[in-house]
Amino acid sequence: MKIRRASLAMVLGGALLGAAVAAPPAGAQAIRLPEIRDITLPNGTRIFLAERHDVPLVALSAYVRGGSLTDPEGKEGVASLTAEMLRKGAGKRSAEQIAEAVDGVGGALSTGAGMESFYVSGEFMTGDADLMIELVESVLRKPAFPDSEFVKLRGQNVDGIVALKDDPGNVFRAYGSAYFYGAHPYGRPIGGDEATVAALTRDDVLGCYRDQFGGDRLILVVVGDFAVSTMEPKLRAAFGDWGKAAGALPRVTEPERVGGRRVLLVDKPDATQTYFWIGNRGVSVLDSDRDVLDVANTAFGGTFASLLNTALRVKSGLTYGASCRLQRLSAGGSVGIGSYTKTESTQKAIDLALETLRGFRAAGLKTARLSSARNYINGQFPTDLETAGQLAGQLAVNAFHGLDQEEITGYPARIAAVDSAAVHRAVARVYPPDSDLVLVLVGNAAKVRAVAKRYGPVTEIPLGRPMIEALRGAWQGGALPSAR
Q1: Which residues contact 73 (CB under 8 A, 6 or more apart)?
Q2: Number of other residues whose CB lies within 10 A of the CB of residue 316
Q3: Is residue 251 part of a domain?
Q4: Same domain as 275, residue 227
Q5: How confident is the model at residue 29 (pLDDT cuts 50, 70, 90)?
Q6: Residue 134, number of CB atoms within 10 A of its CB
Q7: Do 275 and 207 lie in a common domain?
Q8: Where are the beta strands (DSSP E) in 348-456?
Q9: Which residues constitute the domain of residue 78?
């Protein structure tokens, strides 16, 4: 009897790694992974296979190098649309038939694009593993891109982008990234904006697929209830003869740190709150202090009890939430504080966020808060690897960035070893000083314009205008940072 989606969800919820993962009670015990078979096919495809027989489930995570970085200027969003179109008809199946095949066995299949990659993920019961391989091969290698589905999906995406702007909380971080990165490729919104997506054609999608998809860019991870000896030949047959992508991957240089201050004010005249982002350049995914920064940012802006949330929410009541995110990409990233407050308390909230940042840079972390952050991370980390899907996804991400298994297995011990001196050094290097900041405010410009001017030279744009169109003049005019 097939297990339907509701039952599968219960299986997934209880699919602990058990003997495969040991939670480190003292914060220093290594994670134990199942044996992983690492294969490189002649066409360049990388395959990783890990058997886990605790539940009758097989999970797959596939990455194809590329993503929105490959979007041509003026066609932002084409990579994302191409990735979504993969499951809208492929091989012998229509979009409806793909959905029926997946739902009929209680499985899950998704496709999408990030900044630096396209992805396909799937989770199926053991008895349906062959169907999973067939579907993944089909959507990756034989997408049909039917015009009717393209027109429908394009329209849905345009409507979705416009609808997101109704709540600035959905978009203020995207404006923060776009304004900070400027003309650098990392500044492109992954999904494009309402104007660039509306102008895309089916030929644009076909060109993106032709240029960016191929076996030489594929990383494929399968984890679960199967035998490597039988799974490997099936994957070799499915992907071993997939040719190379026709186009070149873009070369991405490190984004520059912004010197001085600059402010973007995004006007939403009916807004009763101001959303704000404060940041600058951060670090890459391979930064030597990445573990130290995990601890530092957890304490500064990663939990309810963090320094930022304590200052802005718990003690002052200025917001319902304040956080700090480290975006880490192959060639660099950003560090950005994000929060929101009532229009009339905009200045007070931003000033308090800046004061908290200054204090963090000056003092680092006290022993109790440092210990709390380490314990929090080591308590949460094993739960991020509980299911076969979670493990497959993490292994795929690590393989994409050239990281080996020790990145996972040794993580708890490395976190437990982080000390105050290391945090202080990393924070001083990575978190921006008060003098070098990019600030983005989304709110009622008429009421917060004078406040925005307190923090630096202001560029003002309307939220109702497409983001890329609104910012392009500043990018091309050199008012924003570019690649170094």
Answers
A1: none
A2: 15
A3: no
A4: no
A5: low
A6: 17
A7: no
A8: 437-443
A9: 5-239
Contact 56, 49 (CB under 8 A): no
Are residues 213 and 287 located together in one domain of the fold? no
Contact 31, 21 (CB under 8 A): yes
- Sorted by sequence, the CB contacts under 8 Å of residue 374 that are 6+ apart come out as 27, 295, 415, 416, 418
Residue ending a domain, choose from 205, 239, 273: 239
- My answer on whether 235 and 269 are in the same domain is no
Mean pLDDT of 312-341: 97
* Residue 272 CB neighbour total at 10 angstroms: 11
3-state secondary structure of 48: strand
Residue 370, token pair as written in the block: 């440092």
Residue 245 maps to a domain? no
Whichever domain contains 39, its CATH number is 3.30.830.10
Helix, strand or coil for residue 245? coil
224, β-bridge pairs:
51, 58
CA distance 341 to 83: 36
Query: Could you say which DSSP state residue 433 is in?
Result: P
User: Residue 138 corresponds to which amino acid?
Assistant: S
Contact 70, 212 (CB under 8 A): yes
Quote the tokens at residue 376: 């929090």
Which residues are within 8 A (CB) of 431 and not within 5 positions of it... i.e. 6 or more apart? Answer: 300, 335, 357, 360, 361
> How many CA atoms lie within 13 Å of 409's alpha carbon, on the beta-carbon side?
10
CA-CA distance, 434 to 115, in Å (whole number)? 29
Report the DSSP beta bridge partners of residue 36. Answer: 50
406 and 336 share one domain: yes
Q: Are 406 and 226 in contact (CB under 8 A)?
A: no
> Model confidence over 416-456: pLDDT tens digits?
999 999 999 999 999 999 999 999 999 999 999 999 999 99
Number of neighbours of residue 397 by Cβ within 10 angstroms: 18
The structural domain count of the chain equals: 2
- Of the chain, the percentage scoring pLDDT greater than 70 comes to 92
- Same domain for 272 and 184: no
Concatenating the DSSP letter of every residue in 246-303 gives SSPPPP-PPBPPPPSEEEEEEE-TT-SEEEEEEEEE---TT-TTHHHHHHHHIIIIIS
CA distance 36 to 221: 10
The residues that bridge with 38 in the sheet, in sequence order, are 48
484 is a domain residue: no
Backbone angles phi, psi at 405, to 5 degrees: -65, -25
Do 324 and 282 reside in the same domain of the chain?
yes
Please tell me the distance from the alpha carbon of residue 129 to that of residue 121, in angstroms, as a whole number.
Answer: 13
Structural domain contains residue 482: no
Whole-angstrom distance, CA of residue 221 vs CA of residue 132: 13
Question: Where is the domain boundary, 239, 271, 301?
Answer: 239
- Residues 184 and 267 occupy one common structural domain: no
